[in-house]
C-alpha cells in the first residue's frame, strides 16, 4: 500500500490499527509509523518504521520502487519507532546511504546500525533526481539528534515527531479526521509540552520555511498547515482557560464526595471543571490528564491516607505533572482514619508542580459530614472565582 501526496512524493508507512497505547498515550483509533518515498529517477526514503512491521513496509515500498535500489535513507530521528528496522533495511540493501546528523550517527551506531553514513548539518542539501532536500537541525524535537527534512520546490516539510498525532486515517488527510485536534493535543501534551522551549524555537523555524504541506512521522498529513501551527503555538504559549482540574484518589468514596463538592462549587461560578480519578496505573488517560493540566489555571489534588501518606498512584500523576510545570493555583483535600496530615503532603506535591496552595488543605476524618462538603463547595467556588480573575 502507498499513497501519492505530490508528484514523486509518497507515503509508504504503516497503519498500526491495533495500537492502543503509544508512549503512555491512549490511541483508541490506532497509530502510524510514517515513512515517505521521494522518487525522481533515483529514490530516497525519509524515516523508516518500527521493526515488527518490516515485512509489510518492504511490501509497501515495493509497490513503487525496488527496495534494493533505493539510494538514500534519510534518518530524521533515531528513536526505535523510526529506526529499529534500519538494520534489516541495510541487510537488504547494503549500498543504501544513511543520511543523518553526527549525533544521530552516534546514536544509530550505539544501537548496532552499520552502513554507509552521510553526515549532514543545518542547511545542507541533497539532490534526488531533480528534487532538492534541505536539512534543518531540530534538537530536542524530540531527541537531541533530530533533524527535519524540507523538500524545496514543493515546500513539503518532514518534521518527524513534530505536528504528529497518533490516529489512523486511511487517506492520510488530517482535515477529514473529525477529532484530529483531540488526538494532536494529547500527543503534544505528553511528548512535547515538557520540551516547550525547543518547541517555540522550532515553530519559529517552521514559519520561516512557510511549508505548503506538513508530513509528520505519526498520524495524517497536514495541508491546512496554518491550523496545526496555530494549535501548537497556542498550546506552547497560552493554553490555559478558566478551568480547574481536580485530580484525586479514593477507595471508599469519601474523597470522591469531596471532589464532587469542590466541582459543584467551581461550576457555580461558570468556570470549567474536569474531574480525573487516578486509581489504576493501567489507566489510559495519562496524556489527557496532562492536556487538562495544560489548559487549567488551578489544580485541586485529593487523596485518601495510606500508611500515613498519599495514595501511590496519585504520586505517579504528580510525577508526570512535574514535567509540565506552569504557575497555577493549588488546593489540597483528603481523608484520613488514624492520623491527620495528608493535605500537608499534598501541598508539597502541589508546590513541586508549581500549583501554589492558596489556602490550608481540607481534611476530614473517615467520611465527610454535610458541613465538610459545604466547606468543599465553598473552596471550589473560591477556586472558580480565582481562575476567572486570573488573566
Ligand atoms: Fe516517533 Fe520520538 O519517536
Give an overview in words.
With 391 residues, this protein is α/β, with parallel strands linked by helices. It has 2 domains: 235 residues, Ribonuclease Z/Hydroxyacylglutathione hydrolase-like (Metallo-beta-lactamase, Chain A, 4-Layer Sandwich), CATH 3.60.15; 146 residues, Flavodoxin domain (Rossmann fold), CATH 3.40.50. It is built from 12 helices and 23 strands. Helix 8 links the parallel strand 17 and strand 18. The longest helix is centred in the C-terminal third of the chain and has 20 residues. The radius of gyration is 24 Å and the shape is elongated. 49% of the residues are buried. The model has no long low-confidence stretch (mean pLDDT 96). MU-OXO-diiron binds next to helix 2.
Q: Major β-sheet, in short?
A: 7 strands, mixed
Strand content: 25-35%
Class by alpha and beta content? alpha/beta
In CATH terms, what is the fold-level topology of the largest domain? Metallo-beta-lactamase, Chain A
- pLDDT below 50 for ≥5 consecutive residues: which ranges? none
List the ions, cofactors and other small molecules found in this model.
MU-OXO-diiron
| The level-1 CATH class of the largest domain | Alpha Beta
Distance between the termini: 50 Å
> How many separate structural domains?
2
Number of helices: 12
Net shape: elongated
